[in-house]
Amino acid sequence: MDELLTQWQRPIQAFICEKCDWVYLAETSNTAVACPHCYQAKLTVLEADDIPKVYPPELVAEFILPVENVRKQLDQFAASITLAPTDLKTDNLMTRLRQMYVPIWLVDSSVRSIWQAEMGYNYKVVSHQEQYTGNQWQTFEQTETKVRWEQRLGKLNRRYHNITAPALEEHTILAKKMGSFDLKGDAVKKYQPQYIEKILVRVPNRDTVDAWSDAQPRFQENAIQECQKAGAGDHIRQFQWSPDFTDQNWTQLLLPLYSTCYYDDDHVARPILLNGRTGQIDGIKRASMRRAKKITRNLALLAGLFFIIALALFFYRPGFAILLGMLTIALGIGAITPIAIVSQFNRRQKNDIPFDPR
Ligand SMILES: [Zn+2]
């Protein structure tokens, strides 16, 4: 616990959602809240022995999406469901809106290596072409860029900082659903304890050994760029090195997500998540069978009423009665449409939990 306090500079504890297994860090005052990822269970405190090794935060991408944009996104989400459950109203979603952070690994490492590569240098070749332009020959000058390749060999001894690597098993699907977090320029800030006030922080579930295999190619990319710069080359190819990595230091970059939910017909909470910077939205969509059945019942009642009127009028106004009879049949067929639409819509929605790779 003391380690957490030292790292995060706030009195925080670890919590787990027994339903989706997401582990969070949060202040003790945040207990007994529903899991902001799946909304299927309340968070429970993790015993000290069960807490995974937690690494300190270093950088935070702040929430920058204005509230009115959050509202607009939720409006569109609600409008995208035909016959949405009655609880799916933007006001409800806004009342339940919460914030959380999801992590990405940041790793620093010293690298020593001998490297070799082919460095490419641009040079210009001027050629002259003779062309006959109708009544005389003319000379045209043409400039072409070519590349001269030279072998280069060197020594690299550097320390690289904040190379990123996925910290969650769900990283790929999360990145697909939430999109880029737009981390260019001064978008990320140095961690301050107030950033996590009343905000849950997801704990990495991908260990640093696994993540290291994703980080290594990024170190190589950096090394290639540096070698090219040092050799003043316009191009580089066939880069080879045998790096020796030492003094690795792992920290976290926190990415902002908004989370909210609505309740379906069976009062099951359905989560909706938004990228806290761009507003990209993803959520479980469920249409309301209850509303569909109500419409069907009303249409069927109307059809029944028309049928009775048609029968009563048959001997007095047969033409009108037949017309009414046809309308009754059309209404009868139309009555089942809402149920068909809703059941087909709900069948198409596969996952019950966001970012569930199944
Ligand atoms: Zn959960």
Describe the protein in words.
This protein has three domains: 56-114 and 151-284, no CATH class; 123-150, no CATH class; 290-348. Helices cover 31% and strands 35% of the residues. The protein has helices at 2-8, 67-79, 90-95, 171-178, 208-230, 289-313, 318-335, 337-348; strands at 12-16, 23-27, 44-45, 57-61, 98-132, 137-166, 188-190, 200-202, 235-241, 244-263, 269-275, 281-283. Strands 1, 2, 3, 4, 5, 6, 7, 8, 9, 10, 11 and 12 form a twelve-stranded mixed beta sheet that branches. A hairpin with a 4-residue loop joins strand 5 (98-132) and strand 6 (137-166). The chain is flat. Bound molecules: zinc ion (ZN). Zinc ion binds next to loops.
